[in-house]
Give the backbone structure.
Amino acid sequence: MSQPEGQFTEFKESTSKSISRELVAFSNSGGGCVVVGVNDEGKVVGISDINEEKSKIETIARNCDPSISAKISSHEKEGKTILLIDVPEGKDKPYSCSSGFF
C-alpha cells in the first residue's frame, strides 16, 4: 500500500470475476500481486469472510485456461484483514479466462 498500483501490483476492494483478468495478465507477463481489501487509492477497506474470499479466488484461478496456481495469504493491515494473491509468471503461456486474453 506504500506504492501505487502499477505493472506488478493491482488493488481490489473485493473479489469479483474481474480478478480473472488480473490473474491472466500477471501470468502472461512477469507475474505480480493482487491485493484484495484495498481500494484504488490505496486505502485499506478490509474483507469480512477470509475463507469465502479465498475459495472464490481459487475457483476463479482454476477456471482460467490453463489453470493458474496463485498463492493466497491473509494479512492484518490497519486493524483490517486483506488478502495478497501472489501470481507467478506462467510457464504455459498464453493464459486466458472467460473474458479473453490479457
About this structure: The chain has one domain: 9-87. The CA atoms of residues 9 and 87 lie 10 Å apart. The first strand starts at residue 9 and ends at 12. The two ends are 24 Å apart (CA to CA).
